[in-house]
Amino acid sequence: PSGPVWVAYFDRFFSSSSLPAPSDLSGFNVFALSFIYSSSLIDNAAVWANLDATTRSNTKAQYASAGISIIVSAYGYGPTPTTSGDDPTAAANYIGNYVKTYGLDGADIDYEDLGAMETAGTAVAWLTTFTKALRAQLPQGQYILTHAPLAPWFSPNLWPGNGYLGVHAAVGGLLDWYNIQFYNQGADYTTCSGLLSTSSGTYPQSAVFQIAANGVPLNKLVIGKPSTTSDAGSGYIDPATLSGCLLQAKNSGWSAGAMTWQYPNGDSAWITQVRSQSFPV
């Protein structure tokens, strides 16, 4: 998509024979089927692969006509590809092959190997090799490629290899945007100011405009939030308040967009309200 991106993740069971109607996603322009692992599929990434080719083709055409790209998301919470010793190039080739075989628009890397991110010489190196290999499979301009880091990983000088600032320095130019998880961090990122301008002392310089000040392009910083309180452990901001946060961000030059975990709680009604003050549907 050109302009702001509005991303919904889709991991919860909906149907074994179809995706949601595009009208249920009006206001979104990217739908992320979750999840693919280094060499296997679960949940809605598996559902998509198990649909017959005609259903996939028809669904893809319906979504495309509604302006919605369909991508696959990799990993999520649980898998530890680096710690587990997965080969990054083999994993990238498996994921890239899935995208091409099943006719998707790209891939999102929801890497949550927490132990590796805290271990010198592992996460940043693995993600660098992996991302280069996956981008070679899915050429820039033809396929979407994004990462979905936890917001604290952008705090400078806090993580080995400088965490996601290190990832960005190595492969940021290969990525279309970051679906940043501004949640599951207690009270952090739960006000507009904490989300946008000044994060807490626990994870300094990890609010949106602070990440940008540390060298990540503002237009790649997509604001990720849970759809309801039940969709994350913490970090929820109600849609009306979040709508105001996005207006503040827009007025300061931001136009990246927003992401939510997850459909069906994050549906057309949710995104319509969230966008209402900044980029109305």
UniProtKB/TrEMBL annotation:
Claim: rRNA processing is one of the keywords in the record: no
PROSITE patterns with a match to the protein in the record: GH18_2
Domain of life per record: Eukaryota
GO molecular function: hydrolase activity, acting on glycosyl bonds
Keywords: Glycosidase, Hydrolase
InterPro entries in the cross-refs: GH, Glyco_hydro18_cat, Glycosyl_Hydrlase18_Chitinase
Keyword Hydrolase listed: yes
Pfam family, one: Glyco_hydro_18
Domain GH18: 4-281
Single Gene Ontology BP annotation: carbohydrate metabolic process
The name this protein goes by in its record: Glycoside hydrolase superfamily
Classification lineage: Eukaryota, Fungi, Dikarya, Basidiomycota, Agaricomycotina
